């Protein structure tokens, strides 16, 4: 019962966190275009999200083997929150690049740690099922995140879409922190 509850918590929080990350990438490109960025500037902006994952994933994975998963997941969530709050507070093109760097760094810690956590919950027979649930949650977030962002942009604007993502990520971080004793 305990591992089943934990896997659903991780899947739900990952759905919201990855959905916010994917939504933030869509939002960054649309906001950059609204701010007058060229196509190459938008391409560079989206590529900026991948700099830290490209360079640090292996090293962070080794670190998580030593640190455990709870703190890197929380750090990733808080990093996502900081990253999406930057363009909300500073709605200018350079802030979008800083946001992309911060959220890309957060992605490394969050994704590697959640994958490690999911693959360690339960016995060997349950792990395949848990990884499947996690994968479905991430795939669903790739659908839901851009829809959420598009809806907010259409009704309230780009800055409020960043505010909406910030609220989601703040709630996710609080829930994860509240559940800290349940994470092995």
What does this structure look like?
By secondary structure, the chain is mainly α. It is built from seven helices and no strands. The mean pLDDT is 93.
Helix content: over 70%
Largest sheet: none
Low-confidence residue ranges: none
Broad structural category? mainly alpha
List the helices and strands and how they pair.
Layout: H1 2-34, H2 39-48, H3 51-67, H4 70-89, H5 93-120, H6 124-156, H7 158-178
Report a brief summary of the structure.
The chain is mostly helical and 184 residues long. It has helices spanning 2-34, 39-48, 51-67, 70-89, 93-120, 124-156, 158-178.
Any key phrases for this structure?
184 residues, mainly alpha
